Amino acid sequence: MDAAELKAMQSPLKDAYREDAARAVITLRARGALDDQSIACKVETGRALAVAGLHPATGGSGLELCSGDMLLEALVACAGVTLKAVATALEFRLGAATVEAEGDLDFRGTLGVAKDAPVGFRAIRLAFRLDTDEPQERIDALLKLTERYCVVFQTLNSRPELSVSAAR
Questions:
Q1: What is the pLDDT of residues 90-138, one digit of tens each?
Q2: Secondary structure E strands in 12-161
Q3: Predicted model pTM
Q4: DSSP code at position 63
Q5: What is the pLDDT of residue 128?
Q6: CA-CA distance, 143 to 92, in Å (whole number)?
Q7: So where are the chain's domains?
Q8: Where are the beta strands (DSSP E) in the chain?
Q9: What's the CATH number for 3-158?
Q10: Rounded CA gap, 98 and 127, in Å?
Q11: For residue 113, what are the CA distances in angstroms to 3, 4, 57, 74, 107?
């Protein structure tokens, strides 16, 4: 896909969203079911069933997916797609590219071993390796726009309103 094809695909959507902002607000959903045989949650991904379980650092077997890994994978997926879309729109000369995310966790918090240890990632690093001959200012612009438009990155960066409920 080139810049013209991307623009042709997105222009009608952008116009519709400018005319009626409510049309741009969409609720995405994820669903899972708790496994009745083990400490695991079966998550429906839309393409396959992903079984998430405890990380080995919390007593898991390592056979199931770790939700922390899944969070980083979602960030990599979103950042990669966003970077590719931005590069296409900017007509940025990009050969091969990779995206990597890594995050630091202190499992004492998750296991309730130390009240001063945070639960969750205390740092996440996102890195791109780009095969390009573009000048540094174009690379900087590409990264700035990727950061700005990556949904998962911005969600983590801005802390959305969260709520929890339970029903019987």
A1: 999 999 999 999 999 999 998 999 999 999 999 999 999 999 999 999 9
A2: 31-34, 40-44, 49-53, 65-66, 97-105, 121-130
A3: 0.87
A4: S
A5: 94
A6: 12
A7: 3-158
A8: 31-34, 40-44, 49-53, 65-66, 97-105, 121-130
A9: 3.30.300.20
A10: 8
A11: 52, 55, 13, 28, 8
